[in-house]
Design goal:
Blueprint lengths: L6 H19 L6 H8 L3 H7 L3 H26 L5 H12 L2 H12 L1 H7 L10 H17 L9 H16 L9 H12 L7
Length: 197
């Protein structure tokens, strides 16, 4: 590894390598050796920048959760435009893409990672919890614009959409559901709360 490489570049390189290993080989194959080999760096590079492998994985999860934060901003910016069901279907497709599903699987697979994450996420499953918050925020913005019923319980709708999305996308061997199918489920979950023309 050349000297003078910025920590951020090393982190991104290692995170990208970890995601590739996770997608290709599953959570059981994700080791520090597998990550550094995939990244093309010496094993010591990972341990130079992270206290241990679970600390590295916790940071990987934090990075993925930060991406959900950007999704929340995009969703809120789209409020009042287009189709509510369409925006939500796109969000679920983004959240439950191959990397998102793999990260959730990793969290459930590794006890040490879950224990470390509990320090900052005392409840829920990271990524899923952030997705529910992002969707609830978006639904509240749409309710404020009159596109959802004034009494719509946005928190319950968001949790239901995330749970539905997780079940809908899981275990599909790399073949995601069709966008229209996802939109149909979203529309069903929203039910009578949906007021858009």
């Amino acid at each position: 590894m050349p000297t003078g490489v910025a920590l951020r570049d090393v982190r991104e390189q290692l995170f990208a390598a970890a995601e590739r290993v996770l997608l290709r080989d599953g959570p059981g194959a994700l080791t520090s050796r597998a990550v550094t080999t995939e990244a093309g760096v010496a094993k010591g590079v990972l341990h130079k920048h992270f206290a241990d492998f679970d600390a590295f994985l916790a940071e990987l999860v934090h990075e993925r959760a930060a991406q959900i934060g950007r999704l929340e901003t995009a969703l809120r910016d789209s409020a009042g435009t287009g189709s509510v069901a369409g925006h939500l279907a796109d969000a679920l497709i983004d959240v439950f893409g191959p990397v998102g599903l793999s990260i959730v699987g990793l969290i459930t697979f590794r006890d040490g990672l879950r224990a470390r994450l509990r320090r900052t996420w005392p409840t829920g499953i990271p990524v899923l919890t952030e997705a529910a918050a992002a969707i609830a925020s978006y639904l509240a913005a749409e309710r404020d614009r009159g596109r959802l019923a004034p009494d719509a319980d946005v928190d319950t709708l968001a949790l239901t959409l995330v749970g539905t999305g997780h079940l809908l996308f899981s275990g599909r061997d790399g073949t995601p559901p069709e966008t229209e199918a996802v939109r149909g489920y979203v529309t069903s979950v929203l039910g009578g709360a949906l007021r858009e023309a």
